[in-house]
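Bumping with the actual sequence this time:
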Amino acid sequence: MTTITSSRGHTEVVSARRTELRDVSDIISLFSHFTEDVFGRIDVMHLLEKSNLSLTLCNEKNEVIAHAVFLDYPNWNITDQSDWESFLHKNYLNNKCTPLNTLFMHLFVAKEEYAAGCSQEIISFYVSPNRFLLFTEPGLESAFEKMITAPGSAVDTNFTLLVSPRHRYHPQLHVRKARLEDYNDLMPIWTRQSETLKETYSEYFLADIIEHQDEENQAVVCEVNTVVGFMSLCSQVDVSLFHPCFDLGPFHGLCKPHPEDVLKAPREPSIPEGTYMRKLWADSRSKKKERQKERKKERKTDRKRERKNQTNIYCEVTTISHTELLLDDITHKDFKASAAPLLETEEKDTFRPVYRGASNAVCIRLFCIDEKYETRSLDFLHYVFKLFPDKDFCIILVPHHVPEFCLIRSFVRVVPYFATQLGHELYVFHRGTSEYFCFLEHATWTKCAYVYVAVFFQDGTPVQAFIAEVLDQIVGISVIRDEMDIEYIRSHYNIEDFIHFNQHEQEEHGHLNHFALNPIFHHYTKHFLKEILRLAHKSSLYYPIYPQYTEAKFQNPRAHSLTSALHYMVPVRPRRQIVYPLEELGINAPSEQVSKDQLSYSLNHINRKLITESKTSINSRIVVVGASDVGISFLETLVFCPHLKFNNLTLISIHGLPGKDLPASKHRRLLINSHCFNDEDYAQMSLCSWVDVVVGKMTGINRTAKYVVISKQRKVPYDYLVLCTGQKYQVLSPTGADISKLPTNRDVLSEWPQRYTGKVPSNHFNLNDDQDCLKALHWLEENIVNSEGNVIVYGSTIDIYTTVETLLSLGINGSRIHLVQPPLTSDVTCLNNSEIESAVQEALSEAGVSVYYDSILAQWSKGDDPDLITCAAFTTNTEPFKLQCSAFFSFAYRTVDYETFKAINDACLVFDGRLVIDTEFRTNDVSIRAAGSLTKYSRKYYADEWTHSNFNSKEIGFELATSMLNLFDPTLKPFSKPPEGMDGLIPMYKGCKIRGGVLPRGCNYLHISKPEIPIQLDIELALSDHGMEIITGNARHGNYFRMHINKYSMVDSITCFSKTPFPVSNYICLYGQHERLLNDLRYRWNEGQITDLYSYFREPWSMAIYHDQFIELKKELRQILLSEQVRKMTSECILLFGQFVSVVHFGFFPHPSPKVLLVKISRRIWRLILSSYHLKKYILIGTH
């Protein structure tokens, strides 16, 4: 905050912040009679959207008193935005402006009496550019100075160029060697910033450093009249200690070149047989020649067609596959997508260079500076390299928990090797970039140049190539093209979280294909991107990341190289899509651009505004154990925080990240589906781009040293550990009862169930994830499908039915399948619906599947092969029985994995049947959080029946991430303490529980319900406040649809059982909706107008309910209806609601004109919800 004084002597305390959309009306109110004369006719909304930087000054009452907008090219269309630099050099003297150090002011408005003070405050707030320019003269002489035109200048005399150099507000600091007399000046800064160091090293530690300087150990200070900063340096650095911990290849290991350096592997990198990367390599090599032949033919055809209309120079572009680039760059991890597959192999197989030269780095041992001058921290470095002329690198080690400060934002973070035990981050700064930065004002370095080449891809789309030059040497290159699928992007991704789409022209959207920049200039990535946008006349860029599947083939029709610019872009969340009944919609169906099937991809984005918004880097090591729905949701929430960049996210999982298999694979049908994530979701998240993946099993936790032991060998260090392993089906031990003595269940029940501790037979299967299912399916196809022998499916969960149906679909005769169910441990069955249970039992009987009830596994016998189960015996309530067995699927015993339990228990974490947590997901260790079915609430809450298993796993993961973001996100306000007496209550989450799959007879099953403690459906129906049941169809006929409307007229549960596939994602949207919004469902049902709910929810009116932002529309309508202004107009309020219901029910506006409705309802929300590209039936009339 700063105090400014008006021309009348009044004072205001003001603070500067980024301009927000809600400021537009206040900004317009500041316009004066000469605003248009000075800046021209201004569309504030459009200008804010296209600006590089927009700032607003507010007083203590949060009133806007000044505003300014800056872009990277001149206003008034003085010259083309891509050519203004040469224009200034030609027309003005002593011009030191370059695209990297200059911004142009396109608008400035303020309260008249505070204009002078506000202009100075705004200019001094943002310090990245070295100059702000202004093509006009609005009486801002206090903040700007006039530039002199060159003789013969062609600039219109009506325009004056004003400049405000950076040093006017942030003068360059004078740096010199430290002296003992500086101690007194440094102590206040030292004490304020380093209380911990003072306590550790004593009060005179700083004086000792200054006094004992020599050639290898130097101390320097910076001063402005008095000393304001200090830096201690050491040139004797043992860089060999960093080689095992960090990927220093791009920096030549921080060593001088030596003839005996080993920089490349002695032979072509071999990829272990059977690994994913081996398949990638083999496939890309085998198909390379075939692709080249196809490209030659297509290139000839393209040239003949384009020569008729184009006169540009053509040049051939070899399409490089993503796979080939991945393999060529296999040792460099510029972004984590290239590294994630490597973590699945042993590190010893990765080649690492050997450097034998002398150290080429100087290390910053200690640094402190007054906060007022920290933006000039880089002024130290030019002097540092003068002190050590033989060193090319300056390095600094920073603890993981230390927030990123101004100095290291200009350093390059070195990518650590996996599981390094060094508890610090390493940052590197090259001598060349020091000179570049310090002399930027004098323009001694070549600007970011570019080369335009007219090139055409196979589809005829033109591309532009740009290069970055420093001293006539190319240090970076980028290739972009026009984004041709922008309507698809708009409809499938939440791009409008970052841009207001209607303010951008079609041709202003660009597609980034390739981007590479010399690692020592990596921190100039945003400058390079900014120049690309300016020179290409683009306002935004998009970069897709396509998924990798086991067929080792990128389905992307155009090549995209791995890019180090990814961390400067923001990942864009995908939008939930409506499953359209195209036949019913007819001409009202969305356009093909919106509804077309296309390979899903993860979308990343950058625009002019985002370039000047720095992400907050989080270096804390967050390790997640378990790729459960909770764990994936937790990682997704962190990754999609646009203003945060988590550099050290690690996932430990037995099979790595899910979603690696081809979509719609048959093995997925073996288990019930939670519908939290699907293949499309995994592709659109691309977690491998942001998360290091460790394939293995947690076998130990060392809380003192803070590391996790993987498979009893490897160590993964952490700062925060998140346990999300869940519960899994375990191998059930036979009771060992001698069936020759005819035992019953009563004799063995006390010893059942028990965990099996011996060697698991190879034909015994516990299915817990997709990889387990895939392995089992392959084994069945090789050993069972075309042979004789029985398959035993043992258990009482719903997974037994999906497994039996999958076995039948493989062609295994029903007479060979034996479904054995153990005694129930609860009165609630897995389906909890007598009608569906009857239909399933009838289907099993028709297929010839034998079903046994209340059976406990007593023995399994092994024949000639000790690794196979050949026979299984069971006890019952009467007499035992025995079955021949060729494959055994067990779903009878689900609990916490033993090795997970042992690791938790040995670490002295409280375990009471499950891992004990509080309401904030914390265990008894503040560094360890846990969530999911692995956990239970502490007994102090008296809520033993409620666990995370009762709630939606995706919501649990989101809430877990939200609770941890308070530790990292500086923009979040701390949570207020709960009211007295409420801290002993557990949170009740609202998301619905979902189960879906294919049951016997090929019927698709879906059950959506509220979070609850399960009770029998018959008992629930008998409750007096149960509500209303709406049921159409019959389970035996395969057209059953049940919907429960609770006493509050809200949809409480949905159950579907149909032979015909149905749109699950659409039906999930129905949960929690009021029945009036469902086209007056209760009334129509009571009147007998509904005979088939499947057809009812395919009608055109329902499409608005399925829209991903319909909930936001409801919230805004509620706010409008509850607002004070609307409450005063009761009649208009009733009319408003009535017209809204008409829109939702019938898809059109009744008379009178919809203008009355549109006045009350936010146009922004309506355009988002009832947009023509999603819902053609709901186009608004008169909104433009």
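The tokens above came from a reply further down the thread. The radius of gyration is 34 Å.
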